[in-house]
């Protein structure tokens, strides 16, 4: 995990996924990719509550609503799959693919993506990539470099 100083070695650990299974949807969470945009906790606080363990209760809302809020997660730390799989289509990628640089340097991508990293290729629909080279979780941003500082000209997202 980053100490936000930029003085840490890249992690060789495989990404850890936490899984929260509900009746019609399973939510997965990759903690190292979470950049705390808080889209989940603001979007469905009855499902995503950091003061509770487990912090994700997929059955606290309709599966379609849970999926909708998860698609707002800019880093892709939250993902979902419906079950049975034929119950609903997987998350559709944005089309056309978009790339946006934030004022602090991260690259925000949405679309049908193939991201190559230390642990091989991953198919993604939403990612926030490091734009400064300081992340220990390359190619993903972990806020350990210049992007650790808030942008003065960008209001905090709530």
Structure overview:
- By secondary structure, the chain is mostly beta strands.
- It has two domains: 18-87, Alpha-Beta Plaits; 98-148, no CATH class.
- It is built from two helices and six strands, in the order ββααββββ.
- The protein has helices at residues 39-43, 63-70; strands spanning 18-21, 25-29, 78-82, 98-101, 107-117, 120-129.
- It has a three-stranded antiparallel β-sheet, covered by helices on one side.
- β4 (98-101) and β5 form a beta hairpin.
- The radius of gyration is 16 Å and the shape is globular.
Provide a concise account of the structure shown.
The chain is mainly beta and 158 residues long. It has 2 helices and 6 strands.
- The structure class reads mainly beta
The SSE order reads: EEHHEEEE
Instruction: Name the CATH architecture of the largest domain.
Output: 2-Layer Sandwich
Please report the first level of CATH classification, the CATH class of the largest domain.
Alpha Beta
Shape by Cα distribution: globular
The percent of residues in helical segments reads: under 10%
Radius of gyration: 16 Å
Query: What composes the largest sheet?
Result: 3 strands, antiparallel
What is the topology, as strand order, of the major beta sheet? 1-2-3
User: What's the overall average pLDDT, rounded?
Assistant: 85
Query: How many domains would you count in the coordinates?
Result: 2
Give the CATH topology of the largest domain.
Alpha-Beta Plaits
Termini distance? 24 Å
**Can you tell me the residue ranges where pLDDT is under 50 for at least 5 consecutive residues?**
1-10, 151-158
Number of strands: 6
Number of alpha- plus pi-helical segments: 2
Fraction in beta strands = 15-25%
């Amino acid at each position: 995990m980053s100490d936000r100083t930029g003085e840490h070695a890249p992690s060789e650990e495989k990404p850890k996924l936490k899984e929260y299974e509900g009746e019609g949807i399973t939510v997965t969470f990759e903690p190292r990719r979470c950049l705390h945009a808080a889209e989940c906790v603001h979007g469905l606080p009855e499902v995503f509550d950091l003061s509770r363990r487990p912090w994700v209760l997929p059955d606290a809302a309709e599966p379609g609503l849970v999926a909708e809020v998860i698609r707002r997660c800019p880093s892709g730390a939250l993902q979902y799959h419906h079950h049975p799989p034929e119950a609903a289509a997987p998350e559709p990628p944005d089309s056309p693919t978009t790339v946006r640089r934030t004022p602090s340097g991260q690259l925000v991508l949405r679309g049908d993506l193939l991201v190559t990293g230390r642990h091989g290729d991953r198919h993604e629909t939403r990612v926030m990539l490091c734009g400064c080279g300081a992340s220990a979780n390359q190619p993903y941003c972990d806020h350990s470099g210049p992007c650790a500082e808030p942008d003065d000209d960008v209001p905090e997202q709530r």
